[in-house]
Amino acid sequence: MNCRSLFLLLLVGSFFSTSTAQIQIDWLEITEEDGENDNINLYATNKGYCPLTISMDFSVLENLKADRKLPAEVVIPNDGEAHHVVTLKPTSRTGNLAYNFQLAYSMGDALNAKPNKNHAYLLPFSAGKSYRVGQGYNGHFSHSGINALDFNMPEGSNICATRAGTVVTVKEDSNSGCKSSKCKDQANYILIYHKDGTFASYVHLKFQGAKVKPGDKIEAGQVIGLSGNTGWSSGPHLHLEIYQPGPNNQRISLPTKFLIAQGKKAYLKEEESYTAIHP
């Protein structure tokens, strides 16, 4: 072949190379290696704390064809190993080779997650404490079309993990919020990944109110943070959402049952108060 020209485009920027390419965004590292017969092999490495689902497509394939249907959707385990995504094979023995790819990715296994619908979640606060559900599933204020729960609790109250899992991300640097959606990005939060592929999102924590860090393994009932009033919030409370990842970076929020008494689990109702028990 005369020459090889590579053009790689990701969501956050671009990178040019004449031989071997490597790009890293957050947890995800994309590498390119030469293969037999001038094939180009693209690999993805996940250095984070939960699986990632990636979607790779190409707007330019000059004298190349992919060995699989595009866009290539692949789940990359969080094992630090390089996993094959796609091989580009030359279609001509002469001329330049060029490609341009776009990459989208989301946290979790969007292709195979199977939530355990029978799991009984713990109430997200300390045993013996009672708090009211200020807004329930598909609530009138900010939960339209969302299976999320708001627990009204004073700022600085202990937040406990509803289920065992791995801490994926933590944000605790905000000290502001308001009653408008324009403050949504100011919310502090903790995101935890569960073994059945679901996530729990704990939102509106106080400034520097996290008691855990990314990568921590936590148990159900463990104190993970302190409640607050950051982000889009009309008053101190905890916003809790259990969801599974879906295609195209969707979050499919799930109604879940909670342990409300020994041996009794139920869906929580808006305006009702509940007392936490930790078996």
What is shown here, in short?
With 279 residues, the protein is mostly beta strands. It is built from no helices and 26 strands.
Short key terms for the protein model shown above:
279 residues; mainly beta; five-stranded antiparallel β-sheet; disordered N terminus
Describe the structure.
This protein is mostly beta strands. Helices cover 0% and strands 51% of the residues. The protein has no helices and 26 strands. The strands form 6 sheets. Strands 12, 13, 14, 15, 17, 18, 19, 20, 22, 23 and 26 form an 11-stranded antiparallel sheet that branches. The chain is elongated and about 75 Å long. Residues 1-21 have low confidence and may be disordered.
